[in-house]
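User: Hey, quick favor. My workstation is busy. Could you predict this chain's structure for me?
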Amino acid sequence: MNKNQCTNHLSLRSTTGAIDTLRITVDGKEHELQELAQISRKNPKTIVVNMIAFPQTIPDVLKALEKSGMNLNPQQDGTTLFIPIPKVTKEHREKLSKNAKNLFTKYRDTIKDIQNNSIKKLKKQTDISKDDMFSVQNQLTAVADQYIAEADKILQTKQKELIGDS
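Assistant: No problem, here it is.
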């Protein structure tokens, strides 16, 4: 699990940094929002996203903001999006904690898929002895388990922070 993703997308306070790196899919290609717009703070409670350079991407940006799990409700005025920063409520904390768990699950499944695909490729090789194959398989499993354990640690820390049990 990427620590920066946890910090940015699962923080109690929505920051311009979290929105900067939000992934936007436009015509099948992914871009960060900061590549498509100017992002600034109007005041402590509002983020302004100026879409003048790529106004055709506004629907994609709105969709990505909605799916981000950051509890954002942007208001559009022409090519400008005003994003009020939500108050931190117990429900918001719980939703972020759930999003953290979902993110962890996604990363865990990705790691397991990579592990399983590597083992399948390994088993197809005929020039490796059974002992070596078993050894490499155990190493792959150990590395995958290590990454999953590290991601789980990040998840536990993040959930404590979000729920307020730090």
